[in-house]
Structures are given as C-alpha cells and as structure tokens.
C-alpha cells in the first residue's frame, strides 16, 4: 500500500507540474494572437487546465500528507517527504 501511495503522489504532483509547464509553454503562441483571437480561444482550454490543475495540486497535497502520515517517523524517507511537503506552496 505504501508503494502505491508513493506512486499516486508522484503522479498527482507530476500532473500539477505538467499543467504549469504547458501553461508556460503556450505563452509564446498566445502572444502572437490578436486580442479577439485570444479571447476566442481562451474558453476552449481554460476548463481543462482548471480541472487538471485542481486535481493535480490539491490531490497531490492530500496524497503527500497521507504519505507523510504512513512513512515511519525518523527515517530518511520521512524527512525527505516532510521537506517536499513543507516546500510546497500554492500562490493562487
């Protein structure tokens, strides 16, 4: 079960990172659009980013907390998980 929780946490956090990276990589293409084209295309993929980002960020946060609770206290894995969890922040 512990290995499954590690994999789930990794996948959820990777999903959140992928959404952030995709959002950053689409900026050059958006900059070439006219104002009208930008506002026309924005509703097409905004819901997808919102849903995937919410699942990735909040699911990853909950999974990381659960992972920390199931990790043996005092082990290297515990402290690495603790540092990763304490270093996460959600500015939005």
Brief descriptors of the model:
92 residues
Mean pLDDT: 85
Low-confidence stretches: none
Distance between the termini: 32 Å
Compressed to H and E, one letter per element, the order equals HHHH
Strand fraction equals under 5%
Supply Rg.
17 Å
What can you see in these coordinates?
The radius of gyration is 17 Å and the shape is elongated. It has 4 helices and no strands. The mean pLDDT is 85. By secondary structure, it is mostly helical. The two termini are 32 Å apart. Helix 1 (2-25) packs antiparallel against helix 3 (35-70) and helix 3 (35-70) runs antiparallel to helix 4. It has one domain. It has helices at 2-25, 27-31, 35-70, 76-86.
Quick summary:
Keywords: Membrane, Transmembrane, Transmembrane helix. The chain has 92 residues and is an all-alpha fold.
Question: Layout of SSEs?
Answer:
Elements: H1 2-25, H2 27-31, H3 35-70, H4 76-86
Helix pairs in contact: 1-3, 3-4
